[in-house]
Amino acid sequence: MLILVPVKRVIDPYAKVRPLADGSGIDTTGVKFEINPFDEIALEEAVRQKEKNPSVEVVAVSIGASECEEQLRKALAIGADRAILIETTNTYDSPMVAEELRHLIEELQPSVVLMGKQATDDDNNQAGQMLAAKLDWPQATFASKVDLGSSAKVTRETDSGEETLELPFPCLITTDLRLNEPRYIALPGIIKARSKPLDRRPPKVTSTPKTRRVRVESPPPRAAGIKVGSVDELVAALKDRGVLA
Amino acid sequence: MKLLHVAFGASDADSGGGLASALGMEFDVLEIGSDAPPADSLAKAIAQRAQGYSHVSAVSSMQSKDVMARVAGILEAAMVTDVIQVDSATVFKRPIVAGTMVETVETLVNPVVLTFRPAGFKGRASAGSSTAIVSVAPEKATRISVSARGGSRPDLTQAKVVVSGGRPLKDAATFESVIGGLADALGGAAGATRAAVDSGIAANELQVGQTGKIVAPDLYIAAGISGSTQHMAGIKDSKVIVAINKDPDAPIFEFADFGLVADLFEAIPVLKSKI
């Protein structure tokens, strides 16, 4: 069984970032890059499945510039068997990511695509579902438990609780926070993973972006608040603002 | 140019009018029942009904994100997630990077699929037609069990008042009595931080923040919450934010309209007794 895990290189989700002065994008000067945390959860899950079932092969793929090798090396250190870098400096929107991945999936024929529900830079939450649509595969988004047997049983988070879906293979699963806690990988592990295969190839996508970033700016700040000295003062202030009867 | 608003719940239907006004378009509503099939089948049915519309929208929720991005995939549509402002029928504003920045996005093709946060859209246009989903393709995924939250509290994303707690609430029973108790006294919903959810103090679906629920109540009370960027991303559209925290240097005091430096276990019972 082959599990394909797409990983995105994103700015460190815990770094403080600002818009570029000309508003054309995000200022990444001096900011570290990481695997998108939700993709790291997907990788961890794929590797755990492999540890339970040695016939599982885990392939990590990233779309982007040469620097994405750093994240793919980490994916190999976490336990992916091999990695593919679709090397491009073009800007992809989610439909293009889905198309690019579809080309690769037609070649690799994975049983499962396991990926993050959203990237923490764009917060789009689109690529997985768009890919599942293009493949006409069943999907389970926001997974909190994955059980792969003769079919995939996926418990997923919903607005009001959770539900469990049974999906025939091939299927697409996107991960939520509580699926697992990714293992810690020390630097020697990353260096050791240098001997694992990493295949670079050109993009195959033919479509053009359907959306365009016009501007990035800081949100208007909330007006500064005040400290109140007691619960009575708080109640009076809330009544005054009309939010407490 | 015409909008199809996909309503995943009764209160979502009204929100369509707000977005339609902002877009300057007429709109129809497509109602999705609570017995809707999994996304593969539902998305096909919605995509079929969306023929002839320039825009297809839904209020941001886990269910709408699951389904609408798949609809966009089927329709080869441009998609914009979590719209907070409409500049024109093709230009939208939305938060990125946990709400620390606002991105202006232009859509380059039709149709356009949007999920949006209703707080910023107050128009009251009425729908041309309102129909329920009927035609359903065979399901590829099968729903084998559902466990829904019990209780009578309003939905977090729709509530006028939200009371949230963090890790200082210690355990599930304390959370329920202190946070749940104040929420009930105010007729509101209970919410929690990721830390509280991860440590088993509160249920998953109560998580408020970048990767949880986005809320925009009239009154948000944060008790024992320090105010991480990820949490603030989920609450900053609230009309009034109150912070109760015993650490006077907690970052949340920079955002709160009213801050009370106090032990929540002392302050909340007093607050409850006064409402």
Count of beta strands of chain A:
15
Give the structural class of chain B.
alpha/beta
- Gap between N and C termini of chain A: 60 Å
The H-level CATH homologous superfamily of chain A, spelled out, is HUPs
Mean pLDDT of chain B equals 93
Helix content of chain B: 25-40%
Would you kindly provide a written description of the structure presented here, covering whatever features stand out?
- The complex is a heterodimer of chains A (245) and B (275).
- The longest helix of chain A has 16 residues, at 37-52.
- Chain A is globular.
- In chain A, 27% of the residues lie in helices and 31% in strands.
- With 245 residues, chain A is α/β, with parallel strands linked by helices.
- A nine-stranded mixed sheet of chain A has the order 11-10-9-12-8-1-6-7-13, with helices on both faces. A two-stranded antiparallel ribbon of chain A has the order 2-5. Chain A has a two-stranded antiparallel ribbon with strand order 3-4.
- Chain A has one domain (2-240): 3-Layer(aba) Sandwich (Rossmann fold).
- In chain B, helix 4 (172-185) runs parallel beside helix 7.
- The longest helix of chain B has 14 residues, at 10-23.
- The mean pLDDT of chain B is 93.
- At the A-B interface, strand 3, helix 3, helix 4, strand 9 and strand 10 of A face helix 2, helix 3, strand 4, strand 6 and strand 7 of B.
